[in-house]
Design goal:
Blueprint lengths: L2 H29 L4 H21 L9 H19 L1 H5 L6 H12 L15 H16 L1 H8 L5 H10 L12 H25 L4 H12 L17 H14 L3 H8 L10 H23 L6 H16 L14 H13 L12 H19 L8 E2 L2 E2 L2 H26 L5 H12 L20 H15 L3 H4 L11
Antiparallel strand pairs: 1-2
Length: about 475
């Protein structure tokens, strides 16, 4: 392990995070909200920490190998919330540093869980930083890092493949820097479009930006206590549904569409399954709500049912209704959607649709082998034979994911929380969704969790965001041995 180059890159990344706090500083000055000094101190301290780390490895210019890439990615996602929490601490927005770290980790991992009890009382500059952390984390702070730094070379590809979500993390172009730039250009383009449309529908620019950041990142942080439901606007609900859906789609498909491949989405097996699950879930839950007379008419049931289905499956976490009070059938399906998640290559979390499809194919393949063992078959996906290595990786991911879910749930249960709250809290953080059920429901928060519980859930957030391995590898002693 080349520790100097790891420190050098971590230092650059921390300095970059400090500079991005300047956007929040602008809004603090604009609103004169009293958080200016807190942000200035946070910027200075963050850049100072980053400069120190960079100084420890500044003479190191060797190539980044796989171990170093994994270390940079894993450590950066643990370290960035450490400095990202500073504005919450210095502005006295939260009562403790653990709460601030939880909020920052929830932001950068685009989870959307919060310890804030009264969001609307928080200074606008701090709220902007809170939402901006989600936007930075949505496409990936490492992907952005690759896009703006010209010297990473082959190491950039290794960093990219360690962060991008899904079983296959390949570039759109042979040059990984170009791929990172393309992804961020599409991300920014969609963000600009959504912001403009929200403003045209009546949101002020500040709220439009904050909700756009959280939508495109599938993060779910809102500037309002009642989330999107605060605006009570059908046009805003529809806009949010559309852009949550787009954010949950593989960005490679958006790129191909912009390049002229008009049917690229419809040729993709994962995207078709993603749409199919969403449509079925919307119809089932909306019908369920109507039959149980949760809403007076089918129109209202469809509106709220569709919003929550898209919000939960894309792991965004925005709400327009308190689904904690919905019938068990509707809540049960929402929990299932938490685990399925969005598409690979999107900003969404969860296990990803492609892995669920792969697991179904593996199960079917195994059943066919039982009654016809002599027949030679290969598992195919999208017309391509699936390699044994991909099958093993999928099964390993599923097993470890469920194991972590069980262990974390038992740990939270041991702290005295009820079963539904504990299990749904772990599901919501591990799948990067935000709201769960009962005491962490749609209109609730995580402030009442004990400190150790918040740290466990923070770890769940980053494990889910990096899809297990890039974080778990940090706990293997042999990984840190020098070559």
């Amino acid at each position: 392990m080349n520790f100097r180059i790891v420190l050098r890159l971590l230092g650059l990344l921390v300095c970059f995070i400090g500079l991005t706090m300047g956007f929040a500083l602008f809004w603090s000055l604009y609103y004169r909200d009293g958080s200016t000094h807190a942000l200035l101190f946070s910027i200075g301290l963050t850049i100072g920490i980053g400069g120190l780390l960079f100084g420890l490895g500044k003479f190191q210019k060797e190539e980044i190998f796989r171990k170093e890439a994994l270390a940079v990615v894993g450590l950066s996602w643990l370290l960035v919330p450490v400095v990202g929490a500073l504005p919450f601490v210095f502005s006295h927005t939260v009562p403790s540093y653990i709460d601030a770290y939880f909020e920052a980790m929830s932001g950068f991992t685009t989870t959307g869980s919060t310890v804030l009890v009264n969001i609307e009382s928080v200074a606008p500059g701090i709220l902007f930083w809170r939402s901006f952390t989600q936007w930075l984390g949505g496409m990936g702070i490492i992907v952005l890092f690759i896009a703006v730094l010209p010297f990473l070379g082959v190491g950039g590809r290794r960093l990219f493949s360690s962060e991008v979500s899904g079983p296959v993390s390949q570039g759109l172009t042979p040059r990984i820097k170009e791929t990172a730039l393309i992804l961020w250009k599409i991300y920014i383009l969609l963000s600009v479009i959504q912001t403009v449309v929200l403003v045209l529908c009546g949101m002020n620019l500040f709220d439009a930006l904050c909700h756009t950041f959280a939508t495109m990142a599938t993060g779910g942080f809102s500037t309002k206590n009642a989330s999107v439901g605060h605006f009570e606007s059908l046009p805003i609900d529809l806009i949010m549904i559309v852009f949550m859906f787009l954010a949950g789609t593989n960005f490679a498909l958006h790129y191909r569409l912009l390049k002229g491949e008009r049917l690229s989405h419809f040729r993709d097996a994962e995207w078709k399954a993603y749409v199919g699950v969403l449509l079925f879930s919307v119809l089932f839950i909306s019908g369920h709500l109507w039959v149980h007379q949760v809403y007076a008419g089918i129109g209202e049931a469809l509106r709220h049912g569709a919003f929550q289905v898209v919000s939960i499956m894309t792991t965004t976490g925005f709400t327009t209704a308190d689904f904690n009070g919905w019938p068990p059938g509707a809540k049960g399906l929402l929990v299932v959607l938490m685990f399925i998640g969005a598409c690979a290559g999107s900003t969404g979390g969860g296990m990803k649709v492609i892995r669920i499809l792969m697991l179904l194919k593996i199960a079917r393949f195994r059943l066919e082998q039982i009654y016809s063992p002599r027949t030679i078959r290969k598992i195919r996906f999208g017309g391509v034979v699936v390699e044994d290595e991909v099958i093993l990786a999928t099964l390993s991911f599923f097993f470890i994911f469920i194991l972590i879910f069980i262990i974390a749930s038992l740990v939270i249960l041991a702290m005295g929380l009820d079963l539904v709250t504990a299990v749904s809290a772990v599901a919501a953080t591990l799948n990067n969704i935000g709201p769960g059920l009962e005491k962490v429901g749609a209109i609730e928060h995580y402030a009442h969790f004990p400190g150790i519980g918040k740290m466990v859930l923070s770890l769940c957030m980053v494990i889910g965001r990096l899809e297990l391995f890039s974080i778990l590898i940090l706990f293997v002693p042999m990984f840190w041995q020098r070559k």
